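User: Design a sequence. Structure:
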């Protein structure tokens, strides 16, 4: 089982050299203890070779998800290039992941949507905030107008994301037509 950044980077390099976007991150903010890196996995082989890390996290995310999302669909979207998978490493150890995609449907503006975000149990929750900062740089590199992220855990994220300049934009209400109303 791969458990260090060196082995993960070695596995990714075996497929192709790391892109400039995968270079080491700037030093973390004082609130995050440890060296954090967020690495995009552009090559399918890198995704396939490391999927076992992400599968449990995706399954955990799906426990809280609504709609038609499932493990197979998410996996296929990553392999097909519809989602970009990012691996998070804290002090060389796998700590979580993000998936992102570009979208033009909201407000007619180019946006980068953070579709999935997961951190391993016991990991400092500030890695989310550090990861979001790195994703912001990525979005700017691709001339995005906005970034999007939604979650059912809105209270916790609202406090943290406001500190990074994010604004809540809407509340999502869902009515399940297949569920019997009491």
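Assistant: Done.
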């Amino acid at each position: 089982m791969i458990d260090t950044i060196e082995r993960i980077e070695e596995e990714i390099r075996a497929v192709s050299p790391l892109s400039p976007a995968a270079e080491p991150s700037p030093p973390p903010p004082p609130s995050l203890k440890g060296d954090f890196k967020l690495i995009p996995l552009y090559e399918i082989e890198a995704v396939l070779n490391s999927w076992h890390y992400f599968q449990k996290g995706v399954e955990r995310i799906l426990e809280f998800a609504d709609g038609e999302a499932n493990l197979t669909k998410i996996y296929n979207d990553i392999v097909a290039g519809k989602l970009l998978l990012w691996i998070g490493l804290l002090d060389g150890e796998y700590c979580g992941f993000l998936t992102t995609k570009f979208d033009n449907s909201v407000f007619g503006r180019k946006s980068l949507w953070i579709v999935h975000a997961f951190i391993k149990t016991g990991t400092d929750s500030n890695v989310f905030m550090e990861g979001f900062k790195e994703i912001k740089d990525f979005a700017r590199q691709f001339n995005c107008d906005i970034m999007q992220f939604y979650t059912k855990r809105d209270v916790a994220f609202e406090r943290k994301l406001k500190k990074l300049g994010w604004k809540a934009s809407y509340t999502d209400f869902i009515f399940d037509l297949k569920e019997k109303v009491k």
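The first strand starts at residue 36 and ends at 41. Confidence is low (pLDDT under 50) at residues 15-30.
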